[in-house]
């Protein structure tokens, strides 16, 4: 926030005001790639730390080393979002819908940046609290992350529906295939590694 105050102010303005259609602010945000990249890395680090702490709390860590698990969580998140970004760019180019793909990836990464910022207090609580407070912090963090993801789906649907005629059922199929299925596959893979 101190290094890039204008970018941070525009980011919060776009997030809290649902004026994502305002191309002016969006273009200002996309014209400053360095703060965007740094906040995306910040998201990967904070979410990697959050996932590491939650896995260690539930004794689901496949590694003894905290730092090794933390590193793998960061690499996993970065890999997921790099593949998602490249896939969006490719399919946008393939179907001649670059504008929709750009708007969709903009929403995804704006919400990710917000999650990276809003998860910090929960990381502190999970790292330093115990018993009831720890359980409350984990449940509240799940509620906040879930609410932000639902907000992302609503914004995505409104953007896509404004530019294409999309049936809500088809959008639901998209959510199941490209948002929920990868998470379930990762969860299943993690369970196989832990139980092995």
Task: Describe the structure using short key phrases.
196 residues, mainly alpha, globular
Topology:
Layout: H1 5-16, H2 23-30, H3 33-57, H4 66-94, H5 98-118, H6 120-128, H7 131-163, H8 168-195
Short description:
The chain has 8 helices and no strands. It is mostly helical.
Describe what this molecule looks like in 3D.
This protein is mainly α. The protein is built from eight helices and no strands. It has helices spanning 5-16, 23-30, 33-57, 66-94, 98-118, 120-128, 131-163, 168-195. Helix 3 (33-57) runs parallel beside helix 6 (120-128) and helix 5 (98-118) packs antiparallel against helix 7 (131-163). The radius of gyration is 18 Å and the shape is globular. The model has no long low-confidence stretch (mean pLDDT 81).
Work out the radius of gyration: 18 Å
Counted by DSSP, the helix tally is: 8
Order of helix and strand elements from N to C terminus: HHHHHHHH
Measured as a percent range, the helix fraction is over 70%
**Net shape:** globular
Mean pLDDT: 81
Largest sheet: none
How many strand elements?
0
Would you tell me the structural class of the helices and strands?
mainly alpha
Share in β-strands: under 5%
- Spatial separation of the terminal alpha carbons: 44 Å
The low-pLDDT segments are none
């Amino acid at each position: 926030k101190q290094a890039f105050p204008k970018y941070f102010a525009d980011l919060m303005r776009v997030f809290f005001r649902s004026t994502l259609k305002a191309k002016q602010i969006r273009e200002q945000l996309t014209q400053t790639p360095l703060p965007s990249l740094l906040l995306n890395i910040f998201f990967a680090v904070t979410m990697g730390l959050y996932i590491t702490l939650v896995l260690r709390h539930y004794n689901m860590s496949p590694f003894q080393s905290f730092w090794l698990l933390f590193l793998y969580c960061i690499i996993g998140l970065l890999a997921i979002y790099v593949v998602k970004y490249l896939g969006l760019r490719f399919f946008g180019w393939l179907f001649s819908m670059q504008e929709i793909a750009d708007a969709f990836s903009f929403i995804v990464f704006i919400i990710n940046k917000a999650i990276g910022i809003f998860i910090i207090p929960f990381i502190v609580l999970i790292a330093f609290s115990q018993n009831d407070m720890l359980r409350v912090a984990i449940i509240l963090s799940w509620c906040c992350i879930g609410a932000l993801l639902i907000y992302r789906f609503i914004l995505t649907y409104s953007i896509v529906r404004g530019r294409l005629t999309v049936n809500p059922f088809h959008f639901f199929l998209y959510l199941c295939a490209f948002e929920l299925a990868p998470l379930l596959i990762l969860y299943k893979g993690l369970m196989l590694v832990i139980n092995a």
